[in-house]
Design a protein that fits this description.
By secondary structure, the protein is an alpha+beta fold. It is built from 5 helices and 4 strands, in the order αβαββααβα.
């Protein structure tokens, strides 16, 4: 499938067009996740194991974020529940609502992580007329 054929942003487009790679299940053993997730800066994406209807189109993307240390952000913040209100809300979705068994994380290492995060969120918003569900408050 050519990049121009993607109508709505989803994980396939992120892989092919933006280089988001190495999807792994958040339910994996913590030691395995520590080995897989790099300490470098980059953009990360949480995706669900199925597509959800959006205002326009469908997507499996739940959240787009960035960090100067991917491993610390994903493991310490989201999986262990340390951080601010958004992080704690997502931790609650993962742990208390049991999404952890249905969510995978992928990432791209880049020093320009803030710019790529903004570009991906804007593209998602343009495609679907809304941000990914976990990027929205509440």
């Amino acid at each position: 499938m050519a990049w121009s054929q993607f109508k709505f942003m989803n994980s396939e487009e992120l892989i092919k067009k933006y280089g988001i790679r190495l999807w792994c299940k958040l339910s994996d053993d913590l030691d395995n996740l520590k080995q897989k997730i790099p300490k470098e800066p980059g953009v990360y994406v949480f995706k669900l194991n199925k597509y959800l209807n959006k205002l326009r189109g469908k997507s499996d993307i739940l959240y787009i974020g960035s960090s100067k240390n991917l491993r610390k952000r994903i493991i310490n913040n989201y999986l262990k529940g340390r951080g601010g209100p958004t992080t704690k809300r997502i931790h609650s979705y993962l742990i208390k609502r049991n999404y952890i068994n249905f969510v995978e994380v992928g990432w791209k290492i880049t020093k320009n992580y803030k710019n790529l995060e903004k570009k991906l969120r804007n593209k998602f918003d343009k495609d679907h007329d809304q941000l990914p569900p976990w990027n929205r408050q509440g």
